[in-house]
Design a protein that fits this description.
Layout (H helix, E strand, L loop, with lengths): L4 H20 L2 H5 L2 E9 L2 E5 L19 E12 L3 E11 L5 E14 L2 E9 L3
Length: 127
Amino acid sequence: MAGHDEAVAAAQGVLDAFMAAFNARDVEAFEATFNFPSVRLASNTLTLIERGFHRPEMFTTGALAEWDHSAWERRAVIHAGPEKVHIDTRFARYRKDGSLIGAFDSIYVITREDGHWGIKARSSFAP
């Protein structure tokens, strides 16, 4: 993505912060990685996410009931411009004992809005 190294670095930094906050179960830090409104497409459901959408119980219920932590397996930039970066990712979810729950392909769209880089949209095959 010649000529857009700063945008790519900023977008990758958002993904670093997103995963760190998610694993720390830090809702405030997690929400700081978004540009609201944000969109999530998963399980054939489109969700519009506004500030305050995420709650602490999201880390212990539903698809995350057995979850302990996650990790990126792939983060490949597809397209990049000065205000937006598309990243092809794969992440894995793990139980406390280190066993794999599952790994999921996804696309993240990271944007710069009012100087803030954050997740604007994501589409994944995760439940």
